[in-house]
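**Sequence, C-alpha cells**
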Amino acid sequence: MLSCGNVHITEHYVEIHNGAYRCRLLPVTEEIIRCITSKEEVREDTQSFIMEKKNYPKVEFWTEESEDSILLKTRKVQAEYCLGDDSITFRHPNGELWLVQSTRELSEIDVVRYTTGEEKPVVRRVKTVDGERNFIENLKAVTERRAYRGRLFFQWKEQEGIYGLGQAEEGIYDYRGHNQYLYQHNMRIPMPMLVSTQGYGILVDCCSLMTFNDEGESSYLFLDTVDQLDYYFLGGGTMDEIIHEYRYLTGKAQMLPKWSFGYVQSKEQYYTAQELKETVARYRQLQVPLDCIVQDWNSWDPGKWGNKHLDKTRYADLRECMDEIHEMHAHSMISVWPNMAPDCQDHQELFEAGYLLNDYSTYNAFDENARAMFWKQAKEELFDGGFDSWWCDSTEPFSGPDWGGEVKREPWERYVLVGNEHKKYLDPGLANAYALMHAKGIYENQRKAREDMRVLNLTRSGYASGQRYAAMLWSGDTCATWESFRKQIVEGLNMGLSGYPYWTLDIGAFFTVRDKWQNRGCGCNTDPTPKWFWQGDYEEGVRDLGYRELYVRWLQMGAFLPMFRSHGTDTPREIWNFGEPGTMFYDAIEKFIKLRYHLMPYIYSVAASVYFEDQTMMRSLLFDFPKDREARTITDEFMFGPALLICPVTEPMYYERESHSLQREKKRRCYLPKGTLWYDYWSNTRYEGGQYVDIEAPIDRIPIFVRAGSILPTSEGLQYADQIPEQPMKVYVYPGAHGTFRYYEDAGDGYGFEKGEYAMTGFVWDDEHRQLKIVSREGSYKKGEALRYSVEIPK
C-alpha cells in the first residue's frame, strides 16, 4: 500500500482521511465508481439487501495527486476528491464535467427498537379499507445501537433534468425544483435511484426512509438511518447503459411466463372458484382473448383475515375449477397478505415459531425461516390447489395510520406518520425493504418447489433489485379521474427511469365513487364517512358513459404496459359490462385486447430483451431521444420497446361524468421526436420527426407511430399468448432507415432458457436494398426448424 499523508492507495481503491470522515473511491467497472463515506472504518462488505452478491473483476485505474486533491481515472470515468471542501467531482474521460457531489454529512443517532417487553401486548385491531390492521398500544422504545442520519449534497447544472426515484402520486416527471418523500405506502414505491439528462445515474445503497430536496438553496438526498454513506456513480452516458449498470449491480430482471403478457382480468372481487371458471369460459365464448383470471382478497373463512386456507363453502371445488381453467388455456392468480388475524391457523403457526413482528400480525420477511414457513402455508392449498401466480397485496403493511380520514394530510405529515409506523416494527435502516424481502421469499421458495413454472408476483410495493425476484409492481389504489390517469403515465415513466422494468396499474383505476358511499365496494357501503382517497368522478361506475370513455382510454394505454391488467372496486370490469358487441365501448375494448395479442411476438421479444439485454419496455423519450430538448418535456407519450411510440388520449372527447355529452374534436396533438421518420400505425402515413401533428383519435383508436427502420413481428387470431397460430408469422418492416430486431421464442414457461433452451433470431433490414435478412439464430429451442414468416412493407 502506498501512503501519502491523508491518501491511501491500493490496487483496488483510493481512500482519503479528511477530518472526521473517511471516503473510499472504488472502481466497480470502468463506468461505475462506488463512493463510501464513514466516520469509522470504511466497510465494503456490509450486508446489502439490494446489491447482488458477486465478485467484481479487478478494474485498472490511475491516480494523479495534487496539493489539495486526488484524481482517480478509469478509461470511462474520472472522480476527483477535493480535500479542501470534501467534494467529489465526476467527469467524462475527456475532462468534461458530469456532476459535483459537493459534500456529505453524517449525524449520530440512537436506533431504537419497539417492544412490549415482558408485558402482554395491548392490541387495537382496526378494520380499514385496506384490510385489517393491528395497532399495539403499549410499545416501548429501547435503544438498540448507534447509527447515522446522512445527507448527500449535489450541484446540478442549470438545465439538467433529474428523474427516477420510483413511483409516487404527484405526477412529477423532472424533480428539479421539487421535494419528494421516499417511503412505502399505498400508491408509493420508492427507489434509491436517480438519473440525469447529463448521462449518469446515482444508486444509493440505502433501505431506510429517504427524501429528495431541490427546492431551497441546496440540493440533497436525506437518508434516515445508515451506518455509512454508500452510493454508486453510474457513468453510462445513455439511459440504456445506465440501466444496464443498475441491473449489473442489483441483478438481472427475471423472465416472466409468456402468459403474463396477455390480458389479465381482475376485480374486487370474485367470490367462488366457480365464478372464476365461468368468467374465463365467457371470454372464450365471446372469443375475446384472455390469459389470466385473478382472485382478490377474502378467499379465506370469514373473520380469518390473511389466512392462506380457503373458505370451503366457496372453494371446495378449487382443484376441479383450476383444472378446467387450465384446459381453457388460461391461468390464475391469488391474493395473499403478509398480515393475519390472530385466530387463524397460519397466524398461530407463525406466532408459535416466533416468526411474527411486534405488531403480532405480520410475518417477519427478513427471517429466512419465516419466509419458508409463509411459503409452506401458501403452497399447501393455493399453489398445490392450482393457482399459477401470486398477488402479494399490501406489502407495505404499516401504512394503516394514513389510510383513512376525510382530508389528505400534508406530504411531510404522511411521510412522518407512515414512516414512523414502519420504524416501530422494522429496523429503521430497513424501513423500505419489507416488500423486497417478501418477494425474495416467494421467488426463492417457489423455484425450489417447481422449476417448470416461472414465478410471477404482482406486488403493490417493492424496492431496488426486486426485478431479480420476478416482482411485477403495480401503482396501488388510484381513483378514476382524468387527472389521475395522466399522473399514472408519468409515474410509470419514472419507474422505468429508476431501472425497474416491470410496472403496471389498475386499468380504469381502483376507486370510481366519491360521494355516493352506497356504491362503494370493499365491503364499505354502510359507512357514509368521506375518505380522502375514495375520490373517483363516477358515482354510477359503468352505468356512466363518462366512466366508460375513461376506462377505454385507460385500457388503450394499458395495452402497452409490461402487464395488461384490468382491476378495481365499486363497479365491475369485464368487457360485457361496457356494452354489447357492435357498440362503441365494447368494440373499442375488444379491438385493443386483440391488438395486444396481434403484437405478441413483438411484445414477448421485447420482454426477452429485458432479461438478455437489460432493456426497458415502457420507455420515457429520454431513452431514445436524449438530444431532443422538446422530447424531454413530453410526459404523456412513451416508447413501447424500440419500435412503437404510444400517445394515450388523456382528455374526454365524448362524455363528461353523469353521461353528459361533449361536442369536441376527436383529435390528439402528438409530438414526433426528431432524428427519424414516423409511420402512423393505422394509416401508414409518413411524417418527419421533430414536429407536432394532430391525429384522428376516435374512441377505438389512439395515435400510435412506428419508427422508420422498425421490424415488427405479429400473429393473427390468438386467444391466449401460448397459442400456436395457424398462419405463419407476419413481419412488418417500415422503410426509411436500416433496422435490426431479435425475435425471441421459448417454451413460454419454466427456466430452460437459463440453459440455452430458446431461439433468438436476428433480423436485419437493409434499407438501401430493401431486403430483410436473417443473420443469426441462437439457442437450442426449435433447432433445425425453419422459421415460417411472410414480410409486408407498408406502401
